[in-house]
Amino acid sequence: MSNKNLGSKKKRAMFWLAIPGVASLVIFLSSCNHNRPLNTLTSDASPDAKKINDLFFVVLGIATVVGVLVLGAIVYMIWRFRNREKNNPYDPDNPNLALLEAEALPEQTHGNLRLEIAWTIIPALILLVVAIFTLFAIFEQHRSTAADDQLKVDVVGQQWWWEFQYHIDGDRSTPPDFVSANELVIPTGQQIPLEVSARDVIHAFWIPRLNGKIDAVPGREHAWRIEASKPGTYKGQCTEFCGLSHGFMKMEVRALETSDWASWARNQMRSAAVLSADDPNYEGQELFITNCARCHSISGVTDTNADNEVDTWEIYDGDGKIHDQLISGSAPNLTHFASRTTYAGSIFDTYLSEVRIEDYLRLSLTEASATSVGEGVGDEVAPNIFEPTPDIRGLRRWIFNAPAEKPAAASESRGMPAFPNLTTDQVNSVIDYLLTLK
């Protein structure tokens, strides 16, 4: 084989070897965008995120030093002991071939005991240091310093959405004060203890800018905590493969100033009003009760489990609770549907315009509730100042044929079924009614 052919082969080999390297570099650089909602390299939103971030850079620094040393040694040995073309014993045209074949092999040694002990002990010590830092961080993430009478939230995962049960006084032995779905709203500067579980399969709760991830396991409750240093919206994602719509099982944390959160919470504790027959949204209410109340509950209006009693927050607690397993009734509570900015596992926006965090409190204020929420709401927060435009078309598509919008198995009580029996006018009436639930 000629030297020219060998050179051409080397160039082709280098080209194909460079492709995965360039691709890896592009993927790595794309992950460094600080504006992405699931960016993990942030430390300003939460004390817990800062601890994780600090640990990451400690481990990254150690790994970088080790990587440089190991790769440097490999590159040096490749260059130092490379087989030059004139010493290539596999080239039949090499004029030195006879001489190469006559050369004796270098002296072979079994190994260097001291060197082998060193490169066993040194990596073990490095891993021990990393393990110590990691264990301290893990234990710290689980430790709660919140007072017993402070807000606690039960987080429940289900195919394919998240439920949040709020205990404002911290007493989890009593029914929750109110229940929400997909959006966890918390006060800033306060550690919120969580109890994370699941109804069906294993899920994982993860808000990367606020804390690490924790598994949600059926039949078990995992203690966790979350805290936001400043107001904002923090995106999350289920990170344990859980079926058809795992990739569409998202969630959000909305952090409000303490006084704003108190006003929002008081509004969330209100039950919905039963509409009279002369109300323009009465038809929507009745259509909802007829078609949706088998699974969805609206506190003060529905009778989800058909026990001839109007639903309250007590259906989530005690021996009679119906939301403890994957059966009819295990669907998002819609008592304050219009005060949320997302639905369907947070994959769709309720409103066409972006709801900024400074407008979030206004979203749940109606003329009826503006006077009932009490202190914490200034005069500037009038009920009609912030009126975002609902995404009527998106809501209509969802109600008509939810399985076409989000993969599910509605026939197995996993996901929302389609309602082809409803007319467009009827669906519009249901949407109009839902948008009154602030």
Structure description:
- With 438 residues, the chain is α+β, with helices and mostly antiparallel strands.
- The protein folds into 3 domains: 1-30; 36-142, Helix Hairpins, CATH 1.10.287.90; 151-438, Cupredoxins -  blue copper proteins (Immunoglobulin-like).
- It contains 10 helices and 12 strands.
- The strands form 4 sheets. The chain has a 5-stranded mixed β-sheet, with no helix packed on it. It has a 3-stranded mixed β-sheet with strand order 4-10-9, with helices on one face. The chain has a two-stranded antiparallel ribbon with strand order 6-7.
- Helix 6 (282-291) packs across helix 10.
- The radius of gyration is 30 Å and the shape is elongated.
- The N and C termini lie far apart (80 Å).
- Mean pLDDT is 80; it is low at 367-383.
Task: List its salient traits.
single chain, alpha+beta, Helix Hairpins, Immunoglobulin-like, 3 domains, five-stranded mixed β-sheet, three-stranded mixed β-sheet, 12 strands, 34% helix
Number of helices: 10
Amino- and carboxy-terminal Cα gap: 80 Å
Structural class: alpha+beta
Instruction: Please tally the β strands and state the result.
Output: 12
> What is the name of the CATH architecture of the largest domain?
Sandwich
- Beta-strand content estimate: 5-15%
N-to-C SSE series? HHHHEEEEEEEEEEHHEEHHHH
Using the alpha-carbon principal axes, give the shape: elongated
- Please write the CATH class name of the largest domain: Mainly Beta
- CATH homologous superfamily heading of the largest domain: Cupredoxins -  blue copper proteins
Helix content class: 25-40%
Report the major sheet: 5 strands, mixed
Radius of gyration: 30 Å
Please, what is the average pLDDT? 80
CATH-defined topology of the largest domain = Immunoglobulin-like
The strands making up the biggest β-sheet line up spatially as 3-2-1-5-8
Residue stretches low in confidence (pLDDT < 50, at least 5 long) are 367-383
Number of domains: 3
